[in-house]
Amino acid sequence: MPGGAQDPGESLTRTAVRETLEETGVTVRPIGVSGIYTDPRHVVHYTSNDEVRQEFTIVYLADYVSGEPVTSSETTQVEWVPIDQLDGLPMDRSQRMRIEWALNHADTWIDPIGD
Question: What is the SS3 assignment for 94?
Fold first, then answer.
């Protein structure tokens, strides 16, 4: 799933649109938030500056606007995948959970990992 860091002065929604375009070649229009995810047990240690962060993810629901899936310097594979073929894709457990939550709970959102 596309993702990345927010640029200074950029809204979260604009970040989602920009990162999706940069990483996939596809322009989207966000229509809602599927979930906000954090796991207090998951921290990232950046050895370049010795910074430690507990990161979070905001997953948007979005409509397709334009563009064709293409790889970028940040992606190795980009494609549309039918929902009934998702189970066959290799992915991290947390990514799978986020996709399943978006598909089955689009009307509500909470932090399902929590603590």
Answer: helix
Q: What is the pLDDT of residues 19-40, one digit of tens each?
A: 999 999 999 999 989 888 888 8
Based on its alpha-carbon atoms, the radius of gyration of the chain, rounded to whole angstroms, reads: 15
Are 39 and 12 within 8 A, CB to CB? Answer: no
Phi/psi of residue 114, nearest 5 degrees: 50, -160
Token reading at 102 = 């978006």
Nearest 5°: the CA angle 28, 7, 100 is 45
The residues that bridge with 46 in the sheet, in sequence order, are: 51
* Whether pTM exceeds 0.85: no
Which two tokens mark 46?
């950046």
Alpha helix stretches (DSSP H) within the chain: 12-24, 93-104
Count of residues for the chain? 115
